[in-house]
Specification:
The structure holds two protein chains of two kinds. Helices cover 60% and strands 0% of the residues of chain A. Chain A is an all-alpha fold. The termini of chain A are far apart. In chain B, the strands form two sheets. In chain B, strands 5-4-3-6-7 form a five-stranded mixed β-sheet. The chains are: A mainly alpha, B alpha/beta. At the A-B interface, helix 3 and helix 4 of A face helix 4 of B.
């Protein structure tokens, strides 16, 4: 009984697997390298997905393209370069650090530093303003 | 000095608000193309109406032309069709219609039904050429100058206003520069 249930459950996921057409990988290492590349590339059609997850037609074409470039002996950097030449830095989930992406990379850290600085200043001022032996809440009547 | 503790956070907040507000109206689907001011990628494809004929990007060299990426499956291509046809009928420049990942008979039926604005239609059945052009959503429209350099790209349907502002204005500038 449990076996039947389990196989039924598995059958539910079959369409999910079929949505992404399998590529003829030679071995596990090749597949792992492929996955690493496509997970770092954005699908331009559905922009919040990467090439590995998307089942848009263009994403499947681009996966095929990546696979063939791997077979053609191109390096990971060359494959990324191929994508950037066509779709711009936007295809990279990890955009390069340059003048136009400076704020993107360091902005959050900068805001964090500013906030930390403000908190330290406020804390210092408060500790100066309040004498150590000032009555606490528990001492109030 | 005392009011500084109000002014500084307020200025920070205002700066952040301006930054975020500037991002609000932007269409995140529009990705700036790295192909602007680069040579149009080469291709050699069969023509839709006569597959024995080849269409290459070099056959338009010497004068500007417009490359429109379309497919019979593409809803927005239908929406821009009137604007594109009106533009093509002015005969300012040749209009090349790259038929992207389409079925040949569907494409011909679509053109027969709605009208064919294109001077020539290269067929990109497997989508390879479209990848070279960085196409990610039809319709897309490219303006290529006499030297084969991509000068402008638009993603999404053309409108009469867009045609005037982006295509016609640029074409007359290009033709004025090299009479």
């Amino acid at each position: 009984m449990i076996r039947v249930m389990l196989s039924l459950l598995l059958a539910c996921f079959a369409p999910l697997a079929a949505a992404i057409a399998p590529l003829p990988f030679a071995d596990h290492a090749e597949e792992a390298r492929f996955q690493q590349i496509v997970q770092e590339l954005r699908c331009l059609v559905c922009q919040n997905q990467n090439l590995a997850d998307s089942d848009a037609g263009l994403a499947s074409d681009l996966r095929k393209e990546v696979f063939e470039m791997m077979r053609g002996g191109r390096s990971d950097a060359q494959i990324r370069e191929f994508m950037v030449e066509r779709y711009g830095d936007f295809v990279l989930y990890r955009p390069p650090i340059k003048r136009t992406t400076w704020l993107l990379w360091f902005g959050p850290g900068l805001v964090l530093l500013l906030a930390a600085g403000a908190i330290v200043r406020i804390a210092r001022r408060r500790s100066h303003a309040l004498p150590v032996d000032a009555p606490g809440i528990e001492d109030l009547p | 000095m005392k009011h500084l503790r109000f002014v500084v956070p307020l200025a920070l907040f205002a700066g952040l608000a301006v930054l975020l507000f500037a991002g609000l109206g932007k269409d995140t689907r529009l990705v700036p193309s790295p192909l602007i001011d680069k040579p149009a990628p080469a291709y050699d494809l069969p023509a839709l109406h006569d597959p024995s004929r080849r269409v290459t990007n070099t056959q338009f060299a010497g004068a500007p032309y417009v490359l429109n990426v379309w497919g019979s499956w593409c809803v927005e291509c239908r929406n821009e069709h009137a604007a594109l046809t009106a533009f093509a009928e002015r005969n300012l420049v040749p209009v090349v219609g790259l038929n992207w990942k389409d079925d040949g008979s569907d494409a011909k039926r679509w053109l027969a039904k709605f009208g064919d604005p294109y001077d020539v239609i290269p067929v990109d059945a497997d989508g390879r050429v479209a990848i070279d052009y960085g196409v990610y959503g039809a319709p897309e429209t490219f303006l290529v100058d006499a030297d084969g350099i991509i000068r402008f790209k638009h993603v999404g349907p053309l409108t009469p206003a867009l045609v005037e502002r982006e295509l016609v204005a640029r074409i007359s500038a290009l033709q004025g520069a090299t009479p």
